[in-house]
Amino acid sequence: MAGVRQFDEDNAFERALDVFWAKGYRATSMLDLAKSTGVQRGSLYNAYGDKEEIFVQVFERYADRFVAETKMALNKPELRDALVDFFTVAIRSITRGSPARGCLSTKIAVETAPEFPRQQELVKRMLDELEDALFKVLDTPGARAQLVIPPRQAARVIVTMTRGIAVMERVYGDPKRLRQTAAALIDTILQQTHQ
After folding, report:
1. What is the DSSP string of 165-182?
2. Number of Cβ atoms within 10 Å of the Cβ of 163
3. For 30-64, what is each residue's pLDDT tens digit?
């Protein structure tokens, strides 16, 4: 039957994600994807057309899952706890593996600009979704009362910090340092309460 996948698409996409994460977009070939997924190149071409389309589908799944994890982390009654958990998810994602795998979206953003506009748009959409999720949490009366800057600015600063943390992980490879940096940012954007 035409259009029926003769392979486990979820499994293939997970394995393709690992390859893109390890090698980046440019250095990944269709042969790499065929080897890692166990799906012949011809079947991949028939199913998706080209490497870019495979990347788009893989990245969209990755981004949806990551944004969903951060939204769950932000679902806390206390703002400080929500922000700490948000950064915990981000840091855990980039420090997984041995060696640590780093941040896929930051890697793609740096690697593919500007000659791959579709990839840039995917990363932009993911970052916008993260910012919107943060803004929703920060733009409540209780949260606004705790912030030293407006909610939209705070959301943008936090998302920008996640990109900086990803770069610092590549340089220092020290999760404790990343957590301390995130905590310092949280202290900076929230009013200090005297206990």
Report:
1. HHHHHHHH--HHHHHHHH
2. 17
3. 999 999 999 888 888 888 889 999 999 999 999 99
Distance from C-alpha of 190 to C-alpha of 99, rounded to nearest angstrom: 34
3-state class percentages of the chain: helix first, strand second, coil last, to nearest 5: 75, 0, 20
Domain boundaries of the chain, sorted by first residue = 58-189
Phi, then psi, of 147 in degrees rounded to 5? -85, 145
- 4: number of CA atoms within 13 Å, CB side? 3
Distance CA 178, CA 183 (A): 9
Please check whether residue 190 is in contact with residue 79, taking contact to mean a CB–CB distance below 8 angstroms. Answer: yes
Q: What is the dihedral of CA 55, 61, 67, 69, to 10 degrees?
A: -130
Taking a C-beta distance cutoff of 8 angstroms, is the pair 170, 83 a contact? no
User: First vs last Cα of the chain: how many Å apart?
Assistant: 68
User: Which CATH architecture best describes the domain 58-189?
Assistant: Orthogonal Bundle (1.10)
Asked if 131 and 155 count as a contact pair (C-beta separation under 8 A), the reply is: yes
* Tokens 């220092």 belong to residue: 172
pLDDT at position 147 is 97
